[in-house]
Structures are given as structure tokens and as C-alpha cells.
Specification:
Blueprint: E1 5-16, H1 55-67, E2 71-72, E3 79-82, E4 92-95, E5 102-107, E6 110-119, E7 123-128, E8 137-142, E9 149-155, H2 162-179, E10 191-201, E11 211-216, H3 219-238, E12 246-251, E13 256-262, E14 272-273, H4 284-292, H5 298-307, H6 312-320, H7 322-334, H8 340-357, H9 370-381, H10 387-400, H11 404-411, H12 419-432, H13 434-441, H14 448-458, H15 465-476
Parallel strand pairs: 11-12
Antiparallel strand pairs: 1-9, 1-10, 2-5, 3-4, 3-14, 5-6, 6-9, 7-8, 10-11, 12-13
Length: 478
């Protein structure tokens, strides 16, 4: 009997904070500016300079810790992580190793081991043909990023699949974005995720040899990369081999994994206390303020929406994007008695689809305010127009910002209220379509769809589908 293996995955997430200046100097933060224009003696590590902690970065870090349900440390310290690389002019990174600012948290089903503050490295760009010798390669360093405030979040190995990592990562991203402390833009590098992946026999508590996957810039790629690595490790073990500890890169274009470097032993970074910085001792008021300042976070919002009857998928879609959540809330507030489930389906379904259809219009640029959409939903729910007519009205609303009631009047879309008129249309449809009538009477009830379509066409979309179905069944003797 072959052994069944499960994946064991832990994450290290780096979040760039949206402060105005760097972590230990007054240089402005930027993205996309000319190289090396935001530097100073401190972030370039010139002799004799001293770092000064960014108070706003500490404030933001405490908010992140509180949002992750962590214990906020009454005392935390900075340390030197020693390594020599061109992106690090000091030959050490200022980080928190011994006493991070937040420990023992949880987000969803994943435990947070700790979160710590540190400075980012400079950006290294490897290029070919940039050297003086024809065809040679060069490594260029842009120090604009060097010294950017980072919060590194380290999870316990609680994740079991690439799909779970993607879903949880999206929750984490939405949570931090909701705080307003980072734009968490993975394409620009303000949110970066590394994954430690291993496998073990199902039921075992012992951890296997892990590999580290780095430099993945979207949660979709992270999911694909992890699934590829889990499959690779299972294949190695199944063939009698041994997984080697190494750092890997996943190429989303080819779906291939490439080894960056072996990692037989943990790096000896020779951590030592940072002698130029004092302890960080947040006051009780600072800690209470960090907790009190938290907005309603995505997980709590999704649970509240599900409590209102909204289905799980719509609740997650609305909760992960603040602007969509605010729009949905606006729809609910604009009309008394509106069913939250129906409103959520219109917002995330027909409305979102129409924005995409008309050129991927951003919600912020949509011409349909929440009150107008609530009016349209009311017209459909009150059976003044059919659902199909509602979609026709919505098309005009999105393209022109039209008033829904005006569109209904101008296009004559108001639903047929005279039951006698609708019954005449149903009878005529039965007479004009003998083939589906015979199929229905022979036991093929699915054929009634053709008759419903004929009635709706004759009624120009102004008939209620449920009433049409009832009348057809009545006249067909079903």
C-alpha cells in the first residue's frame, strides 16, 4: 500500500509600509522615480551616521499586529542581521530577531508566529550587455528602495495546498489594505511572499525537508508554484530519492521550477543587538489606540454579510474590496426593506458584469450611484419590470448614467399587468409552436423552455417569467 503524503506550507510575507519617509532616515519613499534620487548618508551607510526610527512605521506596525490578533510586545528591540550583498551598503540589515513587536496571532485558520519590523534592501537589477565588454552582464543597484519600512509576517506551517495559500493570502492582503498602512501592490513589490514547502505522510506530525520558493508576484502564481513543487517532492520521494533543502524560483511562463541556490544549513547571520537604537517601548495608550483604530476587517465583514443571508462567494467578493463593500452598503441604505441577498447578487453579478462588458469600467468611475441601482432592484422585485428588462435598463444606466424609471418609461419596458393580455399571448404561442407543445405533452418538460422564449419574445421582455410558466402549464394540462 503506497504512502499518502500531504503538503506542509508556511509563509513569510513582506509588507512595505506607506509611510512618507524611510525606516531610519528622512528620505522620501517613491516608486518608479529615477534611480538613486532618494538617498542620504544614512541609507547609504556613510561613516559616522546614526539611524532614527520612523514613529509612523511603528504605529502602522502595531495596527497590523492588532489586526492579526497578535500579542503586542511591551518591549521590542532591533538587531543587526549580518550579510554581505551589493543591495546592502552597511553589510547588515536592521531588523527584529530577538524580540519582535508582535507574536502569537491568528488570521482565519492560520496561526501567526510573529511579525517584526525591518528595513528593505535596495533593488538589484541584473542585465545583459550593459557592461563595457560586448555581451557582458552587469548588476545595477537602485538605492531608492533601500531603507523602506517593512513588516515581515511569519506564519506557522498551517497551510496544506496552493489553493489554500492563495485564498488566505488574498484575505491577508485585503486585511492590510483595509488598514490603510500599505497599498499591498504585489506587482510593484509592496507585498512579497515567500513559501516554505515540504511534504510528510498523512497523519505524521514530523516536518519534512523544506524548500523555499521566492520572488512570486501574484497569489495565482504562488498557487501554481506551490502545486508544482508539491508534485515534484512527491515524485522524488515516490522514486526513492531525498528532497534537498534549497531555494527555488517558479517561472509562471513555462511552469518550471529553477534552483537558485542550495541551502544545506541555515544561514549564520550572526545576529547581534543594534547598538545605535534603544528599545521600542510602546505606551499602553499606543497599544490601545492601535486596537481601537481598527476598522471592520474583511473576515468580520464577510461573516456579517453571511448573517444577512448573502451567499458565501458574494460576501467574500464584497468584503475583500472596500469600495465594493461601501457601494453595497449604499444600496442597502437607499431603499427600505431591500433584501441584502438580492442586492448582493445584483452588485456582484449583473452590475459588475455590465461594468466589465462596457470596457472594464472601474467602480470609482461608474455612472450608477447606489441609490439608482437600488431603484432598479426595487422595480424588478416589485414586478414592475422583468429581470430581463432590468438588465436592459442597467445597460443604459451604465453607459449613460440614465435614471432607471425614465428608461423603463421611454422603452416601454413596464411589465404586463393585465393577466388577460398575457394569457392571450400564451395561447397564441401554443398555437404557433406545435412541435415543442407535442414534446411537452409527450413527457419532455424541458421543451417548455422554447414556449417560454416565444412568449417572452412576443411580450418584448415585459412578461413575468414565473407567471408565463404557470399559464403555459395550465393551458398544456401539466
Amino acid at each position: 500500500m503506497s504512502t499518502e503524503y500531504e503538503a506542509v506550507i508556511g509563509l513569510e510575507i513582506h509588507v512595505q509600509l506607506s509611510t512618507r519617509t524611510k525606516m531610519f532616515c528622512g528620505c522620501e519613499l517613491s516608486f518608479g522615480d529615477d534611480p538613486n534620487v532618494h538617498t542620504c548618508p544614512v541609507c547609504l551607510a556613510l561613516p559616522g551616521v546614526l539611524p532614527v526610527p520612523n514613529a509612523k512605521a511603528i504605529e502602522y506596525a502595531l495596527q497590523i499586529g492588532a489586526a492579526l490578533g497578535c500579542d503586542l510586545s511591551p518591549v521590542s528591540t532591533f538587531d543587526r542581521k549580518n550579510y554581505f550583498y551589493p543591495d546592502n551598503p552597511k553589510a547588515y540589515q536592521i531588523t527584529q530577531a530577538a524580540t519582535p513587536f508582535a507574536v502569537n496571532g491568528r488570521l482565519g485558520d492560520v496561526r501567526i508566529h510573529h511579525a517584526h519590523l525591518e528595513e528593505d534592501a535596495a533593488k538589484t537589477i541584473h542585465t545583459g550587455g550593459a557592461g563595457r565588454i560586448q555581451g557582458s552582464e552587469a548588476s545595477l543597484v537602485d538605492f531608492n528602495r533601500g531603507g523602506t519600512p517593512l513588516v515581515e509576517i511569519v506564519t506557522e506551517p498551517d497551510l496544506r495546498s496552493g489553493a489554500q495559500v492563495r485564498e488566505w493570502g488574498q484575505l491577508l492582503r485585503a486585511t492590510i489594505k483595509q488598514l490603510g498602512v500599505s497599498d499591498v501592490n504585489m506587482e510593484e513589490g509592496s507585498l512579497r511572499c515567500d513559501a516554505n514547502v515540504s511534504i510528510r505522510p498523512v497523519g505524521s506530525e514530523e516536518l519534512g525537508t523544506k524548500t523555499e520558493m521566492k520572488n512570486m508576484n501574484s497569489f495565482r502564481f504562488i498557487e501554481r508554484g506551490i502545486e508544482a513543487e508539491v508534485a515534484r517532492q512527491k515524485e522524488i520521494v515516490a522514486s526513492g530519492g531525498t528532497v534537498v533543502q534549497e531555494t527555488l524560483h517558479f517561472d509562471p511562463a513555462t511552469g518550471e521550477l529553477h534552483s537558485l541556490r542550495s541551502k544545506e544549513e541555515a544561514h549564520d547571520y550572526r545576529y547581534l543587538p543594534e547598538p545605535d537604537l534603544v528599545q521600542v517601548i510602546p505606551t499602553q495608550a499606543m497599544i490601545e489606540e492601535a486596537k481601537a483604530s481598527l476598522p471592520e476587517l474583511p473576515a468580520a465583514r464577510a461573516a456579517r454579510y453571511e448573517g444577512l443571508g448573502v451567499n458565501e462567494q458574494a460576501a467574500l467578493l464584497l468584503s475583500f474590496e472596500v469600495d465594493w463593500a461601501e457601494y453595497f452598503e449604499g444600496v442597502l441604505e437607499s431603499r427600505d426593506g431591500i433584501d441584502p441577498r438580492v442586492a448582493a447578487n445584483w452588485v456582484t453579478g449583473e452590475f459588475a458584469a455590465e461594468l466589465r462588458k462596457q470596457g472594464d469600467i472601474p467602480l470609482a468611475e461608474a455612472k450608477v450611484d447606489p441609490a439608482s441601482l437600488a431603484t432598479l432592484i426595487g422595480l424588478v422585485n416589485d414586478r414592475k419590470i422583468s429581470h430581463g428588462a432590468g438588465k436592459t435598463v442597467l445597460e443604459s444606466m451604465v453607459s449613460d448614467g440614465a435614471d432607471p424609471e425614465t428608461v423603463v418609461a421611454e422603452k416601454g419596458l413596464e411589465q404586463i399587468s393585465d393577466s388577460g393580455e398575457l394569457e392571450k399571448i400564451v395561447i397564441q404561442a401554443i398555437e404557433d409552436n406545435p412541435k415543442p407543445v407535442e414534446q411537452v405533452r409527450s413527457g419532455n418538460e424541458k421543451a417548455i423552455g422554447a414556449l417560454v422564449g416565444a412568449v417572452m419574445k412576443a411580450a418584448q421582455g415585459r412578461a413575468d417569467g414565473g407567471e408565463v410558466n404557470r399559464l403555459l402549464r395550465q393551458h398544456l394540462g401539466l
